[in-house]
User: Fold tRNA (guanine-N(1)-)-methyltransferase from Galliscardovia ingluviei.
Amino acid sequence: MRIDIVSVFPEYFDVLNLSLLGKAQDKGLLQVTAHNLRDWTHDVHRTVDDTPVGGGAGMVMKPEIWAQCLDDVLGLPARELENVELTLDDDLPVGQGYGVHATKHGSEVGAAEQSSAIATTQLEHGHKPSQLKQVLIFPNPSAPLFNQQAATELSHAEQLVFGCGRYEGIDARVPRYYAEQGVDVREYSIGDYVLNGGEVAVSAMIEAIVRLIPGFMGNPESIVEESYTGDALLEHRPYTKPTTWRGIAVPQVLISGDHAKVDRYRRDEAIMRTNAIRPDLIEQLDCRRLDKADRKL
Ligand code: SAM
Assistant:
């Protein structure tokens, strides 16, 4: 798999050379390149942001810089599109500048709704192309949540391109534009909180995705029985030796040597923990996968 990351802090991704990710790169399973967005600027200050149209605090990342960079990274032909500055004299209702663009492409949907609908639609309808070639991903706190299902799907892609926002985010027309060009565009949040930039979110997504690539983990079994995998339960708690540590013993059944009982104990614990911590996952559980002993819980 090839991974390209675009950021104003590409050095953030030096951590991806460590541990299993570094080994996967050495083995040729993975090729990671972090690009500096400022390399696509043309001014002396290497400016990547501008004030928000419509007013308000903060700065927004400029679409033309992102587009020049992403055209290169995605391998698309560079396009010089004219920048048009709309004014009130253009007789457009304030705040509907994007509508002009949408109408041109035969759609009445606003850019913001359309771009967030991209990821929502793909996740809600289980969008699963058999072989993903190239996927463009934008971390965004106001997008659908990234989860194990998304990580599994993306682990089959040939190339992932991540665009890390900063400030108030990237101009909303950027994801929309690439989706309209036929690129598979996703936007994901990694949790209900706001980070300063997309770098931490992208690092988390990359780690969750690449550990699912066949050959990445030394022992492939270790990704089969995990939280959010298979039945999508939380995993049972782990214990190692000594069997008693600081007066706390491991559950007796784990040292019984009876594998069926150990399996049963772990499954019961997984179901009970999930019910207590994530009842939403229990509600989504496929009842056909429950056995008689599960149903007694
Ligand atoms: N103004 C935006 C909002 O309130 O939704 C927050 C922008 S945030 C300060 C800047 C960038 O950080 C975002 O464009 C995104 O790339 C990244 N980011 C922040 N929180 C994130 C989260 N929970 N998940 C994914 N990306 C996040």
